[in-house]
Amino acid sequence: MALIQVTGYITDNLAPQTGQSGRPYVRFELLEITGSGKKRWTQYYQVWTWGYEEVDRLMKLGVKKDCKVQITGTLKLVDAFTKASGKTKQLKVALEDCQLLAEPVALLLHKPDKTGTDYPIRDLDGDRDVLPE
Which InterPro entries does the entry link to (predicted)? Predict the structure, then answer.
């Protein structure tokens, strides 16, 4: 096991559940985007937290689908089973701390406003114009 700190996006709304022992827990998927351009890739983590205080603290943060969060926890590589591919490996994080970095509304992409300037903007041509020093 290793301590990990990840910044990523929550892929589903959080729903507290109760385990067989009656202990509450929350499980969610975290999407981490690493690199840029052609070297960009995504990594998924399955994040878990257990206990009344931990679940309550996470729910009070107001984290939900598409929120950007930074989590700290213990990372484990475990065997998992999927219907599509059968036996596989999965990264699980036992959550120790979570910080909300951005609400989903702040993440919406928009076109920049076209604001005018008080003066005309002229392109400089380095071959014909003297460039400022």
Answer: NA-bd_OB-fold (IPR012340)
